[in-house]
């Protein structure tokens, strides 16, 4: 049973008709007193609570009722219904235990999607993670490892994949966030539809709208034809927003709008388009700290992290290092047509001791580089050690400033300035020298106020 709490009979009736049509049993309540009369006799599967369900529009009465419900039975999921102008209040409600918030006027499809997602998650009990059992139920072929931390993550991924819950994947660079996002899509009901990846760290704020929402012919000087944006390309499928912590505040507002309303307008168009996508985001930054610092919107943070998956660093699961190294080695046998390639036991043991700040990506690079540089097909620990000297002790180490004398941002600024001078402001060459995309370089040039000449 779903309980609808709203003083407006028309809203209760409208929601009840929608939910009954979908097979739900429904009850209504017009006041806090009516709500607890229902709760005394029956525990609903979910409550839809309008924050402004009285003459007052402050939302205080709704917040107090939410607190009372959560105190009475914290296991009852609550979805808040609110106007766009009171989203700050909805965010406060999320802190008080609400599971989601829907803005008025709501879209029936999105409301049902949210209800089904929350009910599905509530009905799926976590199970003990076992790689063999997980492989029988889900597709995790590209994710390598048997560490208990990883298996617990895969169990969570398996449970949430079948829902449309927004997922936030966090973890250090190189821990496999994109692979987890792909696994969620592959095991979802949307698996036959598009999986669109967007690296937000590589899109400048000036190109954000065009890249994500598309543009129409004539929207700007070089817009000679209509162009579909990433959201339109991902319609009915999944969109993976990587490096979401890199978005500036103005872009965050635009993104929140489409996540909230499921509509967008291509650049240069006044016609809204509806989109049905599942949202998966990833970042290596601490979004909670960014929220506290005012550099990441709190309402966007709560919109994207109904489920959070935190990936452990590779040094936190050292037992998987030999397994991953063998996996990479087997791939290299095929790529380089060297079927007798293998890792010695001493090499595997030595690799297991590394901290690997770059995680899985760094391990893969180390194995491949050592294969290319070593003469023999049996790689020993010494082969890796010779390679590691250049990997961990670069020639410029002595020129680095002392710890504490300069911030990371100041160092980045100075390196960009030096690269721009050295390559005479040729953006492509500067980006290549710094190991980033041109879009990522443009973002940093804007961030630091560094002037540059556009490439033709």
Automatic annotation (TrEMBL):
One GO MF term attached to the UniProt entry? sequence-specific DNA binding
Alphabetically sorted, this entry's keywords are: ATP-binding, Nucleotide-binding, Phosphoprotein, Transcription, Transcription regulation
Which PROSITE patterns does the entry link to? RESPONSE_REGULATORY, SIGMA54_INTERACT_1, SIGMA54_INTERACT_2, SIGMA54_INTERACT_4
- A Pfam family matched in the record: Sigma54_activat
What are the Sigma-54 factor interaction domain coordinates in residue numbering?
A: 143-372
Q: Does the keyword Cytoplasm apply?
A: no
Q: Residues in domain Response regulatory?
A: 1-119
Q: Where 4-aspartylphosphate occurs along the chain? A: 50
Give me the segments passing through the membrane: none
InterPro entries, per this entry?
AAA+_ATPase, AAA_lid_NorR, CheY-like_superfamily, Homeodomain-like_sf, HTH_Fis, P-loop_NTPase, Sig_transdc_resp-reg_receiver, Sigma_54_int
One of the GO biological process terms: regulation of DNA-templated transcription
Q: Does the keyword Transferase apply?
A: no
Under the heading PANTHER family, the entry gives: C4-DICARBOXYLATE TRANSPORT TRANSCRIPTIONAL REGULATORY PROTEIN DCTD, TRANSCRIPTIONAL REGULATORY PROTEIN
Q: What is the protein name stated in its UniProt record?
A: Sigma-54-dependent Fis family transcriptional regulator
Tell me which species this is from.
Answer: Dyadobacter frigoris
Q: What is the lineage of its organism?
A: Bacteria, Pseudomonadati, Bacteroidota, Cytophagia, Cytophagales
């Amino acid at each position: 049973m779903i309980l609808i709490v709203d003083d407006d009979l028309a809203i209760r009736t409208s929601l009840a008709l929608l939910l009954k049509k979908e097979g739900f049993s429904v009850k209504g309540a017009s006041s806090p007193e009516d709500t607890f009369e229902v709760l005394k006799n029956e525990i609903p599967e979910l409550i839809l609570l309008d924050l402004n369900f009285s003459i007052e529009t402050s939302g205080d009465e709704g917040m107090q009722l939410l607190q009372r419900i959560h105190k009475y039975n914290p296991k009852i999921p609550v979805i808040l219904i609110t106007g766009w102008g009171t989203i700050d209040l909805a965010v406060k409600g999320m802190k008080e235990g609400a599971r989601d918030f829907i803005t008025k006027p709501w879209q029936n499809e999105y409301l049902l999607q949210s209800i089904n997602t929350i009910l599905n998650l509530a009905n799926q009990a976590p199970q003990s993670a076992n790689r063999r059992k997980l492989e029988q139920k889900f597709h995790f072929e590209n994710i390598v490892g048997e560490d208990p931390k990883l298996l617990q993550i895969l169990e969570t991924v398996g449970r949430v994949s079948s829902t449309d819950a927004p997922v936030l994947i966090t973890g250090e660079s190189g821990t496999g966030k994109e692979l987890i996002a792909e696994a969620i899509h592959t095991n979802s009901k949307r698996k036959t539809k598009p999986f669109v990846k967007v690296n937000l760290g590589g899109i400048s704020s000036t190109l954000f709208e065009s890249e994500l929402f598309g543009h129409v012919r004539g929207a700007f000087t070089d817009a000679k034809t209509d162009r579909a944006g990433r959201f339109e390309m991902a319609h009915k499928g999944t969109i993976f927003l990587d490096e979401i912590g890199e978005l500036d505040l103005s872009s965050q507002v635009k993104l929140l709008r489409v996540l909230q309303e499921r509509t967008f307008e291509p650049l240069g168009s006044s016609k809204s388009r509806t989109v049905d996508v599942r949202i998966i985001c990833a970042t290596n930054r601490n979004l909670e700290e960014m929220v506290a610092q005012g550099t990441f919107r709190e309402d966007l943070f709560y919109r994207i992290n109904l489920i959070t998956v935190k990936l452990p660093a590779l040094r936190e699961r050292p037992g998987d290092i030999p397994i991953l190294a063998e996996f990479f080695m087997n791939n290299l046998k095929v790529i380089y047509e060297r079927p007798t390639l293998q890792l010695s036991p001493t090499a595997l043991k030595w690799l297991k001791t590394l901290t690997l700040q770059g995680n899985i990506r760094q391990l893969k690079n180390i194995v491949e580089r050592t294969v290319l540089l070593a003469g023999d097909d049996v790689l020993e620990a010494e082969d890796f050690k010779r390679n590691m000297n250049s990997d961990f002790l670069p020639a410029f180490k002595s020129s680095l400033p002392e710890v504490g004398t300069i911030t990371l941002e100041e160092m980045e600024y100075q390196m960009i300035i030096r690269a721009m001078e050295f390559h005479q402001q040729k953006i492509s060459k500067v980006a290549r020298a710094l190991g980033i995309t041109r879009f990522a370089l443009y973002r940093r040039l804007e961030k630091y106020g560094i002037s540059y000449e556009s490439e033709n």
